Amino acid sequence: MTHPYVPATDQDKKAMLEAIGLSSTDDLFNDIPESFRLKEPLKLDESKSELEVLSYLSKLAKENKSVSDYPCFLGAGAYDHYIPTIIDSLISRSEFYTSYTPYQPEISQGTLQSIFEFQTLITRLTGMDIANASLYDGGTACTEAAIMACASSRKGKILVSKSINPTSLEILKTYLKSQHLELVEVEMKDGQTDLEDLKAKVDDETAGVIVQSPNFFGIIEDVEKAVEITHTAKKAAMILSTDPFSLGLLKTPGQMGVDIVVGEGQSLGLPLGYGGPYLGILATSDKFMRKIPGRLIGETVDEDGKRSYVLTLAAREQHIKREKATSNICTNQGLMALWATIYMVTMGKEGMKEAAYQSTQKAHYAYDKLLATGKFKPLFEGPFFLEFALTSDLEAEKVNKALLDAGIIGGYDLGRDFPEYKNAILFAVTEKRTKEEIDKLVEVLEGIK
User: Fold this and answer.
1) Is residue 47 part of a domain?
2) How many domains does the chain fold into?
3) DSSP string spanning 355-394?
4) 214 or 97, higher pLDDT
5) Band of the pLDDT at 341, cuts 50, 70, 90?
6) What is the DSSP letter of 40?
7) Residue among 141, 276, 165 nearest 218 (CA)
8) DSSP β-ladder status, 157-161 and 188-189
9) At residue 155, does pLDDT exceed 90?
């Protein structure tokens, strides 16, 4: 049998076998008992040519419907934002997508500088003092912030609002259990953090409080009040999980007194995918500088006095110190961080502000139009950014199927994570959605029997 991607000829194989003193390939497996060896060919379909395989895969791919085919109103943590075309041209350059760990600064200045620029932009966006070189995703960043708060305060309890992304909550539960740290959930009230419940649960053992805003339901939380309550406990850190895209319009975490900011960077120009790769963002005040997880790039000068960049404030070996390490994640999403950097630079302050503003305006237009049909009512009351939850007598699955049949990707079925919100759908409206697309969404939903 010929294997197309194994270039060894029969003569090559014979020469290699002779070099190690064997007469056949079967002799390589002499140590495996005869009774365990396969005596017949694998039960696989007939092999296909490259042309046939490509044709088959192309046919399968056409069965998918992506945001290139249909307008998308699905969010819940990953959003269909506009991606400037310049990003693809730059990010696909070989020096970017083949770069590796910048442990040797003398040959890694380009990589180190791009990460330094990313850190700088994130601090400006969040209003914090320092940002790391990124983490795996938003959920991981949230968990790392919780562990950092515990390590810094030498306490073992984290409070988390139930209004955060359910995926982040599951990651928190998994990590904190293995770290032998206590996780206490704070109840919700009308889709937001119940501040009275938070106040009742904050105590001297609290290391940190995690609130998401805009939260999973799209609602803008009272972060400043949560900060005030958190800081009644000595050394307790207020951890805010946020959508960095929203910071083009909303008050920065730094302005609100937040100690640690985390978030999912997908909204900064990264395309939608089946789970990634995405980008974890973590920024903090300088009092946590020595406890920040992951990598940190610093600016210095070389022996000639020229500006240069290095990994700083953490030795490479710190990642293998087990429970004493600031983090057991010893890598970062370098390519994704560069992607977000190009996006932020390309959009600029005014571009990001305009995109966030348009998203908000279009989301409120869609919200008002859907309520006017009489078939939907708000699941919660409260100010929202670009995402909102509605409920009706219609099954969420039926609603989304009707939309898909009409060429529209619908919202997120909240009943998947919150059984108490059966028939509730979370709709996301980004700057990409047009008035015509929103009006068609309303028309289809109004016509469902």
Assistant:
1) no
2) 2
3) HHHHHHHHHHHHHHHHHHTSS-EESS-S-BSSEEEEE-SS
4) 214
5) very high
6) S
7) 165
8) unpaired
9) yes
Long-range Cβ contact pairs of 242-246 (< 8 A, separation 24 or more): 242/126, 242/212, 242/213, 242/214, 243/214, 243/267, 243/385, 244/122, 244/125, 244/126, 244/268, 244/281, 245/79, 245/81, 245/352, 245/355, 245/356, 245/359, 246/214, 246/356, 246/385, 246/386
Residues whose CB is less than 8 angstroms from the CB of residue 143 and which lie 6 or more positions away in sequence, other chains included:
168, 171, 172, 175, 176
Total length of the chain = 449
Residue 130 has phi, psi (to 5 degrees) of -150, 145
Q: Are residues 365 and 272 in the same domain?
A: no
Write the CA distances from 270 to 20, 27, 49, 230, 351, integer angstroms.
Answer: 50, 51, 35, 33, 16
Q: How high does pLDDT run on average in the chain?
A: 93
Q: Which two tokens stand for residue 58?
A: 């192309």
Same domain for 123 and 250, yes or no, is yes
Res 8: pLDDT: 82
Dist CA 253 CA 230 (whole Å):
14
Q: Which domain holds residue 124?
A: 85-342
What is the rounded distance in angstroms from the CA atom of residue 223 to the CA atom of residue 210? 10
Q: What pLDDT band is residue 1 in, cutting at 50, 70 and 90?
A: very low
Q: Please identify, among 342, 361, 390, the residue that sits at the C-terminal boundary of a domain.
A: 342
The residue that leads in pLDDT, 40 or 329, is 40
Mean pLDDT of 349-375: 97
Interval 100-121 mean pLDDT: 90
Q: Are residues 361 and 331 in the same domain?
A: no
13 — phi, psi (to 5°)?
Answer: -65, -40
Cα separation, 252 vs 254, whole angstroms: 5
Residue type, 239: I
Q: What is 262-277 written as a DSSP string?
A: EEEGGGTTPPP-SS-S
Residue 323 shares a structural domain with residue 358: no
> Within a domain: residue 43?
no
The pLDDT of residue 106: 86
- Tell me the whole-structure pTM to 2 decimals: 0.88
List pLDDT tens digits, range 246-289. Answer: 999 999 999 999 999 999 999 999 999 887 899 999 999 999 99
- Cα separation, 34 vs 148, whole angstroms: 54
Q: Look at the alpha carbons of 221, 223, 225, 227 in this order and tell me if their dihedral is positive or negative.
A: positive
Instruction: Give CA separation, 17 vs 3, 10, 26, 327, 353, in Å.
Output: 18, 11, 10, 47, 66
The dihedrals phi and psi of 14, each to the nearest 5 degrees, come to -65, -45
Phi, psi of 400 (to 5 degrees): -65, -30
